[in-house]
Amino acid sequence: MSYQRYWNESIETMPREELEAYQTEQLKEHLKYAYEHSPYYKQSFDESGVKPEDFKVLSDLSKFPFINKQIERDAQISKPLLGTLTAVPEEDVVFVSASSGSTGVPTLSPFTKTDFDEFQDIQSRLFWAAGMRPHDRYVHALNFTLFVGGPDVIGAQNLGALCIWAGTIPSERLLYILQEFQPTVIWTTPSYAWYLGETAKKQGINPATDLAINKIIVAGEPGGSIEATRKAIEDLWDAEVYDFYGISDIYGACAGMCSARNGLHIAEDQIYVEVIDPVTLEPVKDGQRGELVLTTLRKQARPMIRFRTGDIAIFNKEKCECGRTHGRIQVVGRLDDMLIVSGVNIFPSDIEFIVRNIKELNGEYRVYAISENFTTKFKVEVEKHADVTITNEELSEKVSHNIKARLGVRPKEVVILEEGALPRATHKAKRFIDLREQ
Ligand SMILES: [Zn+2]
Hints:
- This protein is of the alpha/beta class.
- 30% of the residues lie in helices and 26% in strands.
- α2 (16-37) packs across α3 (39-48), α5 packs across α6 and α8 packs parallel to α9 (227-237).
- It starts with 8 loop residues before the first helix and ends with a strand.
- Zinc ion binds at residues 258, 260, 265, 320, 322, 324.
- One of its GO terms (biological process) is phenylacetate catabolic process.
């Protein structure tokens, strides 16, 4: 059976100028809406001396103040339950997700009925772009408890796929589902996709031949956009890996890979993207790394105007070979996980890229930030394959050399461990450990 090529062709392939004109019109309304309905934006715009009418062209958005997770949390605490950022009465809210974050009070993300439907339509669009079709059987292996990714399964259902609401269950039960139902698509994190495949093998199940999975959607860690990591998971499963990016403060998934798998198309009809230097707060040049700042264009329950995500990414606005015009992001890591060593920005994902391309290593790794004489250094732990013939010293030097060659700085130490020495992640891998004194 042949299907249409795009989920929503007119939106997804809209010429860039039309798309930007559309964003401009949406933003004019959205800024006005936020100012008139959200107590927080009224106060914040007034304090910054800006009015919604000051926005005429897209670059005018830079006149408006940023918000961040801390502001979001404070606004929530100041007026329970949903906080002063919220722009609708509670009776209009039909869904909230909560993100625990690393510290303090979980932040709630509210949706009206319309917000929720539009959110799910984006999920359908991203699933479609990743190649999911109504004949697929999809197993949703994400957490359902308060997590914004939980309801994403509805987007797959609206697309017409047969959906299996697995959630985060023990691996043995999930493997049982994969064997019994023979689903074709699964969504999980990259580290769990790897762990699950390895666990299957230990139980005598070959994920490549005994299971029907031909697409793995991953999110939550940079691995899905690191080619060598993707390739390792793909070989293990004999399946294609598609990276998605989501953020609970905005939507579940906001961006996802198409068949070209060169960056993640972000839903630019719903989200306006800026990339800034996290220190100067000025926009970076096109194609350069910077902090991703997102603005909702239509979300009624809680508009997000210039939300600093803390994610470091590259944004590419060139039209993709798939025909879609919406720009593509590539997230390289969390600002919190960024190490500055001798003036060079280093992310765990940079180390992952290197480690995955050394054949003596199995791809597991950890990066430690350490301080020595008030200077930041880093140490890397890796695992070698059981059958490696070179010595640990030689292997350590090889890793160190490759890191220096790619990043321009040498790690203080590379520790070679036996296979299985590092703790395995079931869901989100802890790859970065900060041992510096505060
Ligand atoms: Zn594309």
